[in-house]
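Let us practice reading a record.
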Amino acid sequence: MTVFGKTISLFLIEGNPNKRWVCELSNWNGKAYKIPRIDVKHCDDRMDLSACGVYFLFGKSDSDDKGIVYIGEAENVYERLKQHDAPNGKDFWNECIVFISKDNRLNKAHIKYLEHRCYLLAKEADRYYIENSTIPADASLTEAEQAEMEEFLYNIRMINNVLGHKFLEPLVSENVGATEITSQMLYIQATRGANATGMRTNEGFVVLKGSQVADTVTQSCPKQIRTLRQKLIENGIIDTNWTFTENRVFSSPSTAAGVVMGRKEPLEAMMEGERGLFGAAIDPFAAWLLIRSLRTFEIRMKRHSENAMAVAEFLKKSDRVKKLFYPGLESDEGHALAATQMKGFSGTMSFVLDVNEERAMRFVKKLPIFQEGPSWGGFESIVNTPGIYANPTVREFECIPEGLIRISVGLESQESLLDALDQGLKAL
């Protein structure tokens, strides 16, 4: 589907962004006014505001800063706004947005239809508290009129977004397909009850309704995370069962994770610990070496693949290896797919030893030639034990079997590599 751009014209009536605005969309017969409450009394200079239209009154909740909206319609919008601004009118609002037709095409049935549809959309989006005490009545329109009003409604939604009020839009866009949503989702499952799902959006990171948070916080949990968790609990966004009662947007995934897990944000901890330990921040000299090494990359990869194939064939024959994962082997379940995408199969593989964690670590320590570490693809052979000594719950969630060994086969001679592995297996 072809997407076309839109041109929106904003006119500051007093030349002041804090005063009245007029908003118009190219090739649209509608027109929007953004009016601060204190300026409603000055709108007698706008004769078109005495026409039929729909309007929205906006304010903020004192308890949790969540937006409040009242959705209304009137055959004379200006007169209705003056009533809402009167001492006996509605108290909560400080700004309104009005939508009218430039050619007076809107009638009573049209605006009642728009009012009803806006209420339903706002209710479904659940972003603002809705001040309406009852559901606005619907109106009976012809099929052609409904189509026209739905187009008008589309522009109402877009302009409200532009003017800073997204109360008609769900946090998870209805225009995003199921496949795309799934690809954007992140999951947390950990001890103390945390079991949450979230996803990135244009507005931040959203923790989805129904997600569960940890029922306690750790001593390392920062004060700001503790305060935020408590505020969410007090406002009923996290209920007594430690469950999110609505979709909730956060500024970042790390803040969301901190609230869910009740501890120091995982990303912050990673930056303080693993980043320095494992070298995630590459220095300029290492970057230069990397660029230089690309000249011999093809030759080295050929040797990596040949050595790895020899290692895989050797491990395949061992009765101490319970499961072997290497797509270069025709017996591997991923071989058919890998063969369509790869000319060689690199030097990285993993296998599961038929031993407990202690024995698996003994294997690693007894390996000559192989260095222990997380780095892959170097000229030296590397061995690693993912999930070793991890909490069983975490290991199960991450699908890490006991006894899992991961290796990166280097450029040493095949004879030396096979001899090293033979010594490691004999040590079991």
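A brief commentary: The two ends are 61 Å apart (CA to CA).
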